[in-house]
Amino acid sequence: MSLLNAVVHAAKGKHTATVVFLHGLGDSGHGWSDIAPMLAGALPHVKFIFPHAPVQPVTLNMGYKMPSWYDIYSLADRDGKVDEAGIAASAAKVNDLIKNEIEVHGIPSERIVVGGFSQGAALSLTTLTTSAHKLGGVVAMSGYYPLLQQFDKIFNAANQETKVLMCHGTSDEVVQFQWGEKSRDFLAGKGYKIDFKSYSGLGHSANDQELMDVAMFLRNALP
Description:
The chain is an alpha/beta fold and about 220 residues long. The protein is globular. It is built from 6 helices and 9 strands; from the N terminus they run ββαβββαβαβαβαβα. The strands form 2 sheets. It has a 7-stranded mixed beta sheet, with helices on both faces.
């Protein structure tokens, strides 16, 4: 099992839980790794893993190679063509990280949270609906669910009752706020328990309130 390269922040105390956080398009694990020291005081028992996406051509950006969890064809049509194979491959890599935490580090799957921003959030929501591992929670910041048309054939019920936090700025200029709402409504319609928080005027980024909400969610999910 070849694991994704990642930035890893060890737990400050005894390691009893893990957060895997997935970055957005064109970024790396370093881009979000600063949140680990910020949260360590409240979550000393948590190890943070920030994987790096593979570098691959992205159709949206004229085929330019960049870190990307899967190919993106358009940001104009959320119901259009999606890179099913690429999404499945990256979801499998996330599951490998989960499996490694369980088998090598002795962390129960219920003590693992998978989160992400933008494209990483799309992958965290994919993990929610496809992973056979019962997770402690899922976080999706400024993201969307990419497999609306494929849900029935890829669905795994393991996380039907898993806590989910979705966060989205109302002025997001990249992943439209309506896409977040549509993803929430779709997943809620499939029986998932979604806590959806909006942030007035926030663009495609995070603010202090959102990070506080994520920290509170993690504290509740991984006490």
